[in-house]
Amino acid sequence: MGEITDQDPPKYVLRWMISGSLPINCLSCHGNDPAQDQSEFALQVFQQNHRWAATGSCPFANVTGDASTLPDTYDPFMGGFSDNPAIKPPVVTYDKTAFDVKGRVFFDIVRKPPAWRCYFCHSTQDLEKAGPDKEWTRDEDVHLQLGLTCVDCHRNGLDHKITRGAVDPQHPDHQVETLTCEGCHIGDPAAGLPTAVLGGRLGAPKATHPGLPPIHFEKLSCTACHSGNWPGKKATLVRTSRIHRLGLHGKHRREEPLPHIAAPVFALAEDGKITPQKMIWPAYWAYSKGDKVTVISPEIIKNVAGKVLEGNLTEALVDDWNSITEEQISQTLALLAADGGNDGQPIYVAGGGIYTLDEAGKLTVEEDDSGQSIAQPYTWPLAHDVRPAAQSLGVNGCQDCHATDSPFFYGEVAVDSPVKIEPAASIPMHQMQGQRPMLYVNVNRFFKLLIIITMSILILHIIGDLFRRLFRHSE
Amino acid sequence: MKNADLKNIAQQQTFKRFDLQFRIQHMVLFTSTITLIITGIPLWLSLGGPGHIWCSQEVIQAFGGLEAARIIHRWAAAVLIAVSVYHLFYSIISRRGRREFIELLPRIKDVTDVTHNFMYFFGLRKTRPQFRRYSYYEKFDYWAVYWGCVIMIGTGGVLWFPRLAEKCIPWLSYELALEVHADEAILAALALFVWHFYNVHFNPSRFPGTLLWWHGKISREEMLRDHPLELEKLAQEGQAEQLS
């Protein structure tokens, strides 16, 4: 999981020797003991106690000491520095009560990890809960409610290439397609096993989708209708285990929603299907030279423009960002331009816009929603929690999505930026789906006009003809 | 028209306007079109979205449900495509078809007939314009069907075979085709039930309707009123036959 590589600079070689490689902690998944402490594993890693981290997370062992305090010259096999209290070599002590009379300890390990093992790293927490809709009132994934566990679908062999629930063309085993939504609920005609062709694995009900035009299966992923919270008028903020370090001692603070993740956002995925996704708006400083964009590290920004950017720490926050003004952006870009040399033009990316200084030194913002812009938000698909069929989009009819007020097309996604924007900007979901609603609206208007004009002339003709026939004698 | 008919034009009380071929094509056309309109309504109502009407599931179920409507709609579309292609070949290969096609081509006289007729409606002219075999509004009906078929079959094909359409005509997206298909269908339905039906069934000279589409025959009185130049032409051809 972590070890020295050929690309590491020489100064890291000694550190790796002290910390040791970071092996994969099998107990992270296969440990069935509730006392298995993954948070402790993370804390051990923070302290560079790599070779001790897995042991430290076990309920029957305790690791004290901090490898990060050890100098590069420390020999972990020889020890030393015992009289220096600032230097704390890692030490393992075992809980003797955990061992039986024969000196053995019971390893509570399972082949199939329980779902709560997965939750430590794969949880999502809703931040915006108002009124009666609170997180504890929401239902768990329907598969789990019905007795399945995560690894019933997300399987792997000894190679531990865990299937993700979507068809992965890179996976060597074609059989894995049967572990997708379609594979279990519809069947895979191309699968090798007869049972896989039939579908219905693990008792999965057969999906018939009566009356649904087949185009939906080409345009939408299964998760678009079946996963995540029922879409509301706007995408809400969430936190995730891996980004926000939920559950880690000292790292998870309820008051810190940054980085902001919006979900669900119905956007085009890499396979071209509209998929519910989580989304982050990038905000960073960079140098732009031709097609190449080089991100500038926060340390360099602090060194170059620290005085400019830190002056507003006591100012009012934009949501929970430390707000940044356009004046600060201008000054920072100017400083970066002076410092950057030939690295390119300095830019600031935030809220979907690219801030630059023009030749006259004036700040300009370029907004490019083509989908190829470096300022475009980063998205990744979400697949859980899966709602029951009776709660899928479309259960109320086509108007769940095909309506002028449907969240699917017209739900709002806030444009997240540390730059204070008044009024607060947002974009509609359809902008993330490659739709061209104005084109369709204009086509609709054109035809409406055509109908009105054509029928007006025809009806006028009819009236004129009627009038002559009924009230005047034709010659 | 046969030689014997031409010689007796002056005494003839009914004329054969449309032969069996034409009538069968017309029957197949209107059967498929009306089926398409009826089955298209629930499909259109379920669209939702800007510019469209929302309706409840009960209304859609009253039409038999979306799935059944779609299947019948596609069968009727196949029939429409078949009769359109047949008519195209008929108009090119058959001598009679070519003659009818030429008669249906727009002419300068049609433009003058339009203005003449509107002036007649407003009392600015005392007499109606005199029409040949096809009046300008019959030609409008014919070419409107051409226009409608091209658009409806084209966009319908995109909706029926979206993957193939994406490869062949990527600029015509599914959504755009759907928008054009639905809107043109409204125009076609209105033109059919309001304009065409008035002209052939509901106008006072023909009310409650004509069976011309069935037996293909038109009375002398109708010929004199609606196609006097055609009658004149037939009479001239009849005299020419007699002389020859």
Number of domains of chain A: 4
What would the principal axes of the Cα set say about the shape of chain B?
Answer: elongated
How are helices and strands ordered from N to C of chain A?
HHHHEEHEHHHHHHEHEEEEHHEEEEHEEH
- Placed side by side, the strands forming the largest sheet of chain A appear as 3-4-5-6-12
Low-pLDDT segments, ≥5 res of chain B: none
**CATH-level-2 architecture of chain B:** Up-down Bundle
Major sheet summary line of chain A: 5 strands, antiparallel
Count of alpha/pi helices of chain A: 16
Distance between the termini of chain A: 100 Å
Instruction: Compute the separation of the termini of chain B in Å.
Output: 16 Å
- Series of secondary-structure elements of chain B, N-terminal to C-terminal: HEHHHHHHHHHEHH
The average pLDDT of chain B is 85
